[in-house]
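User:
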Amino acid sequence: MPAEFDLVIRGGTVVDGTGAEPVEADIAVRDGRIAEIGRVAGSGREEIDARDRLVTPGFVDIHTHYDAQAVWDDHLAPSSWHGVTTAVMGNCGVGFAPCRVEDREKLVELMEGVEDIPGAVMHEGLDWQWESFGEYLNILEQRPRDVDICALLPHAAVRVYVMGERALRLENANQGDIAQMREIAADAVRAGAFGFSTSRTTSHKSLNGDYTPTLRAQEQELTGIALGLRDAGAGVMEVVSEWSQPGPAEEFGMLRRIAAESGRPIVFSLSQRNSQPTVWREILDLADAANAEGLSVRPVVAPRAIGILLGLESSQNPFSGTPSYKAIAKKPLAERVAIMRDPEFRQRILSEDPVKESTFPLIHRLSYAQMFRFGSTPNYEPKREDSVAAIAEREGRTAPEVAYDLLLENDGHGFIYSPISNYADYDLSVCEALLADRNSIMGLGDGGAHVGFILDAGFPTWLLSYWGKQRDRFPIPELIRRLTSDPAHAVGLHDRGVIGVGRKADLNVIDWDRIGFGAPYMAHDLPAGGGRLLQKAEGYVATIAAGQVTFRDGTATRQLPGRLVRGPQAA
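Assistant: Predicted structure:
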């Protein structure tokens, strides 16, 4: 007798993504959709024994940067290793469409500076068979992947396309510019964009040190683009801001007005900055008040500190900006370690200014008081007394001397962890408060970006292993809701994120006792031999996309059911 279903998952503890209590049930899948839930009598062509395992919806990550990688790669690692089955890319206002031939290098330099994706990687990996955003989506649609992808229209690309050099000079858009941007936004959403993104932070610079073209965009310009979303009848606006100019209340007030006039939802990144340790609370309260008044203006938050991994294998370390390190930076690791162990070289590099000639846009946010030995077992919650500055004070050395010696440990393979957000008080209490707010959305993993110095794409696994298993702070159903239905519905994906009959069969089978992650490592598997930091996950028995098993026990299968998703999806 032929099998009735393509896949049956039997006897699992089903956590359905709504926040409801778990139930024991079978799940049957047919033609990429969930066909039956309960006690399934029919057989499947493939069956998974999920007894003593959690069965959840596939995770939805709404803040990624796979805009380049999705052009050349079938596997959107590391996100797909961590239970993610749908990724929204094009955040922070950067991307590659629309783009004229003469502007390609500008967008590459911006992406290289803002998101730390090496230019050589993009030059080899991108074929640039597009100009409009719709043509870019057509290219993305041609390649199957291990996850579904959704794309936002990037404001920087639109601004350069419309204004040319005036955009790079941060000039104000005129009425004609705004009208053209509005039309581009409407056309992009009609073609399948999920909205548009913009950046208003000085941390986002091109490789040449120039600010992102969107930094000083006026409210009238942003409103015009948001009205383009309204014209098309769909789309979310994604915003990154420093909340410093003219001030938090004023900046948030602008977002309120844009949301009210356009009728479109807004999501924005929110974390605690060391230079503004209390502003996050003010912004969170403003967002809650707006939500209570019926405006959808929601913060996207991280489950732990956002931290930089500094090392000799990373693209950055505390001495990357010194002349002496620059002279050896391209040498093989073992050779660099040998040179750096020479006492004379050590003395010379420690005497040089690491900031003056640095091209690292976050260099001014680094502090030895917020640098820690990362360890072979990753420690994302280090103590104040374990900082480089504290060690130096105890041992009567300078902080740069301590950092220098840490870099050479384990033959240069180790990392120094430097949390730049959410760790001003040397604990995760801010993250706990942000996660506890029902209006916040879990995200900010930045998969596909910052490949040489930040590795946060494993946030879903961290959320479960730390806040669920280790701390037992949030119940499992709520943690799963934060990874599934909540982000999915926030961007208009109502066909997934919940285990229900007729929903898309994106699922995870999880061994709760084993959920966790390994140590970060550097791999050189990008085009042109480019390197990127990666981190494996543990405890995912199976990840399923559109009814096909894409990973078994962390190992990729040959199934690539992931597709480009065009625009909001109704249940």
